[in-house]
Design brief:
With about 210 residues, the protein is α+β, with helices and mostly antiparallel strands. About 50% of the residues lie in helices and about 10% in strands. It folds into 2 domains: about 45 residues, no CATH class; about 150 residues, no CATH class. Strands 1-2-3-4 form a 4-stranded antiparallel sheet.
Amino acid sequence: MRKPRASSLIRRLGVPLLFLTAALSLVYALPLVVHSVKAEKAVNEKAGAQNSVSEILRDNSILPEAVGRMRAAMLEAAMSGEIEALRVPVEMNEIPPMIAKEKISDPVAYWTKISGDGQGREIMAIIVELFRTGFVRKAAGTDDEMYVWPYFAEIPLDKLTPAQEVELLTLVTPDQLKAMRASGKYDHYRIGIAHDGTWHFFWNGVQ
């Protein structure tokens, strides 16, 4: 009795063989996909045991409605390319957000002045990039509850995973990262929005 040829077996097995091949590929590829997720989950689990480390959050749908509204207004203004558009979220506050250590009477004029391009677009790009990172919730469940972007501002830099370092390098230069590691503090821009939607700060430096 002749043995069936390999090509005949493949035709007879058909879809089941293809399914088996795809399943095996998924099994071997899955650890690579979830590696960074597991690493970040470990940081979050450690956050539950150490109050000094804040949990890293990435799901914007959990933001309180007022916080989501302010975030959306800031993003829309920043992505418009027109620095004057940022007056809208600024004026949604009763008082302007803190944007520097000294008192600033006109935030938009200040951002235009300090922006590397001279038109405020560098500042708008920073806002967009900050909101693309994860965030942390401080003083959860209290009147002082605050949402802060990026999460780097609230976690030890020596605890970052390689994937998180890559994310941080989308915000700062390698030299800036090296200096931050040396000081142990994140000193780039950060955004803080209170649970009631009040935009509290957007500034550069260690608080």
